[in-house]
Amino acid sequence: MREYLLVFLVALSVTYLLTVVAREIALRTGAVAQVRDRDVHAEPIPYLGGLAMLGGLVAAYVVAQRLPFLGNQSEFFVFNDAGVVLLAGALVCAVGVIDDIFELDALTKLGGQVLAAGLLVALGVRFYYFPGPDGVQFSLDDAQGALLTLVVVIGTMNAVNFVDGLDGLAAGVVGIGAAAFFFYCYMVSDQNNLTLATTGALLSAALAGACAGFLPHNFHPARLFMGDSGSMLIGLVLSASALTLTGQFVGMPATEGNSLFVTVLPVLLPISLLMVPMVDLVLAVVRRTRAGRSPMSADKQHLHHRLLEIGHSQRRAVLIMWMWAFTISTGAVIVSLVSDAWVWWAVGSMLAVTVLLTFVLPKVHRPPKTGLGNTGLPENAVVEGRVEEPAQPGDDDLTPAAEQGVVEASGSTGGGTGETVA
Predict the structure, then answer these.
(1) I need a labelling partner for 75 at 20 to 30 A (CA). Which of 40, 111, 141, 348 fits?
(2) Would strands 45-46 and 32-33 be described as parallel, antiparallel, or unpaired?
């Protein structure tokens, strides 16, 4: 556990320090989010936080290779799989950086996601088995495993991109999910003597650290956005860390102890960890399709926007969605590991408290009204549908492109003109 804690702290520290560098690069390259009608930030904010997060992940990986316990697992392809995930993550992060700077179209961005997910498949990080009833495992051929892997990885990347709409929201949700999955991998490794679970534990510990290191710069009021370079990176690493677990069960029975859950959870975990953004993604596609619009178009009707509408401040809306992520992800992990009846009561109680805070709290306590409702933004004039903010001391650092609103985001804080869906 101490070595995993060190991995977490290295990723946190390096990410925190590199955000300053990432912000400077964003300002120099014009990768700055202008303020649009559907955004809730009131001034241009630099992108490219994904570069800092990638640096934190790589640093954690390098340090882990030199730790006694983790380093001794290299013969079991622990670091091989982790290296493959980071390589694919670097690829999709590069696509995101290009999008944050030059504003790629949705189809090109989707192509980059397919390429990164395909790299995972080509290098062996994919689904090998799919769980069936009565503990039966269905062996997947190469085509089936590749298709399922592409769906899960690309779907997770886009779900994270969709939820990246409020300061600190995506980093917090993914960080909570990564921490829950780390706990799952650690317990599986301990209870079932599955040493290779260290791959998933290593990746999830590093991912949780990278998200924690980025949050001080990204929580409201944000000084840096992760952009598509960050949202696609952490979405890929989260889903791929679950995929690394499935390769261990070639020829192993699924009925011993908790082994069935070990096989089932990598399929369900990315969905459960990102249940809220996944639901948001599906609702957005249905809503836009029924309205005769492209599902890749953007709007201001995401779940986090609706929380603002019913009376939550921006910070409280983020905390509410963090609570949903915590309840669902930890609930899924605990239920998979413990079969006692009290677990269901505990998860049900957490769910009830979260529902009450979501819908009752705005009726009991509303944040002070501003000229922009409850978005948490200062009261300013609205000119041509955009928020006009008085000049801030740091605004002198912004490039002319950012000040003129040339660079635009996809999603509420992402890059590009629209949102890519799987």
Answers:
(1) 141
(2) antiparallel
Enumerate the domain spans of the chain: 2-276+383-403
Show the tokens assigned to 173.
């949700």
Taking the alpha carbons at both ends of the chain, their separation in whole angstroms is 36
Q: Name, in order, each residue with C-beta under 8 angstroms of 35's C-beta and a sequence gap of 6 or more.
A: 41, 42, 43, 44, 386, 387, 389, 405
So what's the pLDDT on residue 401? 39
pLDDT digits (tens, 9 = 90+) for 26-39: 999 888 876 655 44
Write out the H or E segment, with its range, that includes residue 180.
helix 169-192
The annotation status of 161 as a binding-site residue, yes or no, is: yes
* Angle, helix 78-102 to helix 49-64, in steps of 10 degrees: 170
The tokens for 252 are 């192993």
Which tokens belong to 312? 């939550």
Measured in degrees and rounded to the nearest 5, phi and psi for residue 387 equal: -80, 130
Burial 161-192 (b: 16+ CB within 10 A, else e): bbbbbbbbbbbbbbbbbbbbbbbbbbbbbeeb
For the chain, the 3-state helix, strand and coil shares in percent, each to the nearest 5, are 65, 5, 30
- Read off the pLDDT band of 203 (50, 70, 90): very high
pLDDT attached to residue 187: 81
228 a known binding residue? yes
pLDDT, the chain, mean: 76
Provide the residue type at 179 as one letter. Answer: A
Peptide bond into 46 cis (omega under 30): no
* H or E stretch covering 129: strand 129-131
CA dist., res. 7 & res. 230, Å (int): 19
The sign one gets for the Cα dihedral 193, 240, 181, 71 is positive
